Amino acid sequence: MEPVNDFSLSADLLQADGREQLRIWTDTLFETLWDGTNEAGKLVASGQYYIKTISVDRINRETVVVKPVTVQRPFIRVLESTRLAPNPARDTVRVWGRTRIAGAEVKANVYTVAGELVGRLYFGSMDYVDWNMTNTCGERLASGVYLVVILAKDPVTGQVERKVMKLAVLR
Q1: What is the mean pLDDT of each run of 10 residues along the chain (171 residues)?
Q2: Rg for the chain (alpha carbons), in Å?
């Protein structure tokens, strides 16, 4: 095989799950495809990467060619719907965080309007969690307005979508 002295990059259509096929052509007409994943099979994040080809000729001379490629991932919505009920609430509130992506990790943090973290909620495999409106020390929240921040993480890309909602607590 003759050594590769150059190669060109051409990106094919971006697919709905954020994967793209990057076609790599060399001057010897060798072709390979890269699906935008790393060695662990996870999609790489948006950013600048380098594609390196190493070719060896018949007398074991190596030719190395490196070219930059920019990966720009589209924003993929993870959350389908979010809701708090009842709102205002007195004793308990149901926090919904339904996702569009199977296996997405969903959690919620609750803050005072001053930014103090007062609660952490984990959804597990459910679309909702019932919360007794106690803080991290087990004390009941005082009357007031709180911010519920729902975080949903895509298990493939690691992308996190955030939704902020206001919760009124009446005691």
Answers
A1: 52 46 56 71 74 75 77 79 96 94 91 96 94 93 97 85 96 86
A2: 24
